Amino acid sequence: MSFLLLICMGAGIAWVVSNLLKRRLDFRSSLRWGMGLGFLFTGVDHFVNASTRYVPMIPDALAEHAFAWVYLTGVAELAGGLALLIPAEFYRRLALPNLQKQAGLWLAVMLFFVVAANINVALKGQTVQGLEFGAWYFWIRPLFQPFFIIWALYCVGVWPKRRQAAAIKQSTQSAKSIDV
């Protein structure tokens, strides 16, 4: 839930700043900025608090290489967050594929697998430094993962696809103009 607050605040700040600069962001772009800023923050946190916050969350089956998993996910979060924040126009001008969509997809996959760490903490009944809200918190956290996954896919236009939504909107507008 702390990640939810973080990405909501990031989205809100991005929207306010874009309005102040008179470069209004649409809803998806605001959500993309929130997700990107959230993953940049948590990616850095993987390196700053690896041993106290993230290593204890690693399931026993992966514990032998716990630091490697923590650093790998930290790098993935940093790369994904950065790719979300780089404007799509930048990719187009350099004739590169749109990495925003790839970042959204791969962050959604990573969020799916992070559920294992959340369940591990809940089953062990442990707390994690900086997230000491009680055992109930770690039982609720996995329930938020589908929301985060949908957010990651929605903010980059993967689900539902922007083109499909735009085509439906255009066809209904065309039908209305014909009726007139």
Number of contiguous helices = 8
Structural class: mainly alpha
How big is the Rg?
19 Å
The ordered string of helix (H) and strand (E) elements is HHHHHHHH
Uncertain runs are: none
So what's the overall shape?
Answer: elongated
Helix share, percent = over 70%
What proportion strand? under 5%
Number of strands: 0
Biggest sheet character: none
**What's the average pLDDT?**
87
Report how far the terminal alpha carbons are from each other.
49 Å
Describe it for me?
This protein has 180 residues and is mainly alpha-helical. The chain is built from eight helices and no strands. The protein has helices spanning 2-20, 27-48, 50-54, 66-85, 88-93, 99-124, 135-155, 162-179. Helix 2 (27-48) packs across helix 7 and helix 4 runs antiparallel to helix 6 (99-124). The radius of gyration is 19 Å and the shape is elongated.
Question: Which key features would you list for this structure?
Answer:
mainly alpha, 8 helices, 0% strand, 180 residues
Strand and helix layout:
Blueprint: H1 2-20, H2 27-48, H3 50-54, H4 66-85, H5 88-93, H6 99-124, H7 135-155, H8 162-179
Helix pairs in contact: 1-2, 2-4, 2-7, 4-6, 6-7
Quick synopsis:
The chain is built from 8 helices and no strands. With 180 residues, the protein is mostly helical.
